[in-house]
């Protein structure tokens, strides 16, 4: 069931969208736990985007035809997108360029091609990290979608 869950479908779509960007060389679903983990990635794999989905938060329920039974649930799925890049010359410019491309790509189609996704809101994390020669930033991408009671 997990492969067919709407949550998983959304995460895989975001991975595809980020992987299609020229500014992103590799997309992973596991966050490096420290500098030593980050150093395990080849320089040709950076900039790296990490996509980590949270569990959906139900916002409200939609009643069925009888008005008493819940038929559908509207939830918000938070997805952390963390980007790591290699730049010891102008990391702030690198962050601006990559963030701009990701922002535009993720908002180009707020439904991401799904009829049951109703919108996308991007919340930038205002802090950035710079650890020579690496830099990092993150977005919280909130996607609102409709799903049934049988799964997320």
Describe this structure in words.
The structure is a single chain. The protein is an alpha+beta fold. The protein has one domain (2-148): STM4215-like. Helix content is 23%, strand content 39%. Strands 1, 2, 3, 4, 5, 6 and 7 form a seven-stranded mixed beta sheet that branches. It starts with 5 loop residues before the first helix and ends with a strand.
In short:
This protein is α+β, with helices and mostly antiparallel strands.
**Strands, count:** 7
Shape: elongated
- The third-level CATH topology is STM4215-like
The radius of gyration computed from the alpha-carbon positions, rounded to a whole number of angstroms, is 17 Å
The CATH architecture term is 2-Layer Sandwich
The oligomeric state of the chains shown is single chain
Overall average residue pLDDT: 92
> Describe the biggest sheet?
7 strands, mixed
Task: Please give the structural blueprint.
Layout: H1 6-19, E1 26-28, H2 35-38, E2 48-53, E3 57-63, E4 70-86, H3 91-107, E5 117-124, E6 129-131, E7 134-148
Parallel strand pairs: 1-2
Antiparallel strand pairs: 2-4, 3-4, 4-7, 5-7, 6-7
């Amino acid at each position: 069931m997990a492969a067919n869950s709407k949550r998983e479908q959304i995460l895989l779509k975001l991975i595809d969208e980020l992987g299609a960007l020229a500014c992103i060389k590799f997309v992973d679903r596991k966050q490096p736990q420290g500098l030593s983990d980050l150093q395990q990635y080849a320089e040709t794999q950076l900039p790296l985007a990490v996509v980590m989905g949270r569990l959906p938060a139900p916002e409200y329920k939609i009643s069925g035809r009888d008005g008493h039974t819940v038929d559908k649930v509207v939830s918000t799925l938070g997805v952390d997108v963390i980007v790591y890049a290699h730049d010891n010359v102008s990391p702030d410019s690198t962050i601006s360029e990559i963030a701009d491309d990701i922002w535009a790509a993720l908002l180009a189609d707020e439904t991401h091609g799904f009829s049951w996704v109703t919108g996308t809101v991007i919340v930038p994390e205002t802090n950035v990290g710079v650890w020579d020669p690496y830099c990092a930033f993150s977005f919280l991408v909130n996607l609102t979608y409709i799903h049934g009671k049988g799964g997320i």
